[in-house]
Amino acid sequence: MTSPAAPRPPLPPFTHASAVQKVRLAEDGWNSRDPDKVALAYSLDTRWRNRAEFVRNRDEARAFLARKWARELEYRLIKELWAFGGNRIAVRYAYEWRDDSGNWFRSYGNENWEFGEDGLMIQRHASINDLPIQEADRKFRWPLGRRPDDHPGLSELGL
């Protein structure tokens, strides 16, 4: 079951160009740090594994995202397409954030996504590792929100 909402392009089956577009749209959404907006990209019955946490529907996804961004301050994310086929996309990503004590981290991850015909994500499997960094070692310094088009991606940054 997906949502009765309007389709969310680009729709599967993905081409290289549409997969790259879908990844950038996901990055932009998550960089908004708006749980209500981001949750709309997922089916009503979406299923996630994020680290060791399991999410079973859109409402749980929204609550998960609200908790995440309350804890991960100054959040900035870059995603990059790794592979695609049919209605599935694999991405790698990194994001930088700080905790409420001022400690900075760069988190590295991989995600596997599966989409319904309407373009909503029905499955998301994420594996993530956190690396403590010094504030001076941050690479993601754009103003909060969408990554500027001229900001380097992961490969260009050597990540």
Automatic annotation (TrEMBL):
Domain of life: Bacteria
Coiled-coil stretches: none
Short name of any one Pfam family annotated for the protein: DUF1348
Entries under InterPro entries matching the protein: DUF1348, NTF2-like_dom_sf
PANTHER family: SLL0781 PROTEIN
The protein's name: DUF1348 domain-containing protein
The species this protein was found in: Alcaligenes xylosoxydans xylosoxydans (Achromobacter xylosoxidans)
